[in-house]
Amino acid sequence: MNRVDGADDRYVVGVDYGTLSGRALVVRVGDGAELGTAVHEYGDGVISTTLPGGRTLPPDWALQNPQDYRDVLRYAVPAAVSAAGVDPAAVVGIGIDFTACTVLPTLADGTPLCETPELRDRPHAWVKLWKHHAAQPHADRINALAHERAEPWIGRYGGKISAEWQYAKGLQILEEDPEVYDRAERFIEAADWIVWQLCGTETRNVCTAGYKGILQDGHYPSEGFLTALNPNFGDFVAKLDGPLLPLGARAGALTAQAAAWTGLPEGIAVAVGNVDAHVTAASAQAVQPGRLVAIMGTSTCHVVNGAEVAEVAGMCGVVDGGISPGAWGYEAGQSGVGDIFGWFVEHAAPAGVDSHERLTELAASQPVGGHGLIALDWWNGNRSLLVNHDLSGMIVGMTLATRPADIYRALLESTAYGTRMIIEAFVDAGVPVNDLVIAGGLTNNALLMQIYADVTRRPLNIIASAQGPALGSAIHAAVAAGEFPSIHEASQAMGRVHEAVYRPDPERARAYDALYAEYRALHDHFGRGGNDVMLRLRAIRNAAVETAATTHEAPLEVVA
After folding, report:
1. Domains of the chain by range and CATH?
2. What transmembrane ranges does the database entry give (predicted)?
């Protein structure tokens, strides 16, 4: 399309809130050129063992401090503008994306409950990060009741609601700390909360409302359903409902306070919030149906647009306009990918090979199947297709001849098998997946990328930006600022992708077909009720940890 006159002189800022840090990116409107970036690490990171005040947390908790999110605006945004060397007065909009489902309870004015002095030592008053998995029993109850009542929305989510989503986390708060639940006047996605901080206007974006808030065809789950879960849960929708806006819309104008934080002009456009994975489709030029984007980092999220609505077993959801207006957006995901590789390097690889680079070099020299191993990629639970975060990882086939590089390659391959399961579920349900665009930090590992091409039997395109989510947020900011009429046109002008960088090798693909069949057999046996040993072990572990915490049991002392 023809560029808007003078667009070279205008800029937008995209802010990507990740699991451990937030990144700001300054982008030129006319061509998507990335001019400056900066990262701010969260001061409290992931709070998983103790609150800042010292209170111990149970297993499977993952919290965050909302002040860390404000600090990204205060430090990363001005630093990025400075690095870009542009006049802040030429910035016309700002957009943000967030990990999801990351939610927090607040007062009616948006004050987080954890910032009220009397609730600061209450775990349920804090932000629940996406990988907070302690609500799995509550998710199980939601799913069982939804099927028992034949709720019409359950099929849109592959038959299961995740423990990561709003309802399971909200129900956990109600049943474990009713006072915090009652004090929470709003229960809001962090994406919408930070937009509220920027423009002073409370909004809800259709992406998180649909995928994480069970909003389908204009309706949330009924009050009757919620009260059947718990008589005091009937007001939950009132806590999470709010003004709903489509992606790419203008949520409001930058307030004087937020302008002081960021150094940007007061009154510029603030785009509606979004999810890090879904916003990346714009930067990857993948808003057309059939092109699946896999955003590969600590976890992986898979998103693809479809022309029609379909119910896909085990999916995270299908939402009208969930990726871009005018299409049905499908989402799936894997709860652990880069985290699995990082765990092995940090905690299991011996000295001398305890780096991704060295392990990759050794693993790359192996033929397909040469290590004799199959792994299940559930080290942080299973998001799709099984939707059970109590599942755990597994490696089969180890012998005394097994070496670290063998295990490392098996872990890489296991995540590719998990992605193939997701792709096949889409295709079997009638949602085309023609090719893949890969985004995220793991694109730097050429061995991993080639494994994915061979395992999935599809060409891999690589996003041309190292900051896919931040660029996608900047693209949405340009639309919100009126620089482009739609996300599609902004994506074509500002996004970019390297086409068919990795192609499947027929011989390796055939070898992987045999290994994938073994993965599927293990997947179905341990994930679909053939043997629930993983769930039993998780229950034993949780009971032991909780007993030790309450009795202050000392560790066993070994006397030589």
Report:
1. 338-428+506-537 (3.30.420.40)
2. none
